[in-house]
Write a structure and sequence with these properties.
It is a single chain. This protein has 212 residues and is an alpha/beta fold. It has a single domain, classed as Alpha-Beta Barrel (TIM Barrel). Helices cover 25% and strands 24% of the residues. The chain is built from six helices and nine strands. Strands 3-1-2-4-5-6-7-8-9 form a nine-stranded mixed β-sheet. Helix 2 runs parallel beside helix 3. The longest helix has 14 residues.
């Protein structure tokens, strides 16, 4: 889905969002793994990773525009007071209004994005997960708190390093094995991290825990 003026009109400049799903759970990946958070999955993605585990999210027309204020109110009812906005690709939408509502409610705002579009909104934590098919916009690199690169084959390590060269010095670096090949690649991936200790390994622990 491509952002157009008609798209912005449909979502009233961020006052509505194509909500795919929302749920309270435990974060499964990266630096915040193991922490409780309210997840908000926004529909629509034009990156098209073949290994994506949320392909139903790609077509935003499947998800009706939902009032951002209503979503924020439901998120505020969760005990953790932390929201993770994911997708799809959330950077496709104007998020200043939505994150403003969340922060007014005392909610910590986190986002996971490929950086394929300019990111709007006010964020306490930005996880950048770059994809080769649609590389990040340059501005996102210096904003990211966490760089999480999905690894499917050894050649992906070069892509990971090229992205790591662009983030801030204090940005946390994670290599995450693609789920379907994780057992196969884990031996050389762990060896790589032992040789390059600036990296950490991120596991999709929610899949092991069998939670959303």
């Amino acid at each position: 889905m491509t952002i157009t003026n008609n798209t912005n009109d449909l979502f009233e400049d961020g006052k509505k969002l194509p909500l795919m799903e929302e749920f309270y759970t435990i974060q499964g990946e990266g630096y915040n793994m193991g922490s409780a958070a309210y997840f908000i999955r926004i529909g629509g993605c034009d990156v098209g990773c073949h290994w994506c585990d949320t392909k139903p999210s790609w077509d935003a027309t499947h998800f009706p525009p939902t009032a951002a204020a209503d979503i924020a109110a439901r998120a505020a009812a969760s005990p953790a007071k932390t929201v993770v906005v994911t997708g799809g690709e959330p950077s496709m939408y104007p998020l200043d209004y939505f994150t403003g509502l969340l922060q007014e409610l005392g909610i910590k705002t986190m986002v996971e994005t490929s950086g394929a579009h300019p990111l709007s909104g006010t964020w306490n934590w930005i996880c950048l997960s770059p994809k080769k098919l649609s590389p990040p916009k340059s501005a996102i690199y210096q904003k990211a708190h966490e760089l999480k690169v999905v690894i499917e084959k050894e050649a992906d390590l070069q892509w990971a390093e090229s992205n790591a060269a662009l983030v801030r010095e204090d940005c946390l670096l994670y290599l995450q094995p693609e789920w379907s090949v994780s057992e196969k690649i884990m031996p050389w991936l762990t060896e790589y991290v032992m040789k390059h200790p600036q990296w950490r390994i991120s596991l999709q622990s929610h899949k092991y825990m069998r939670i959303p």
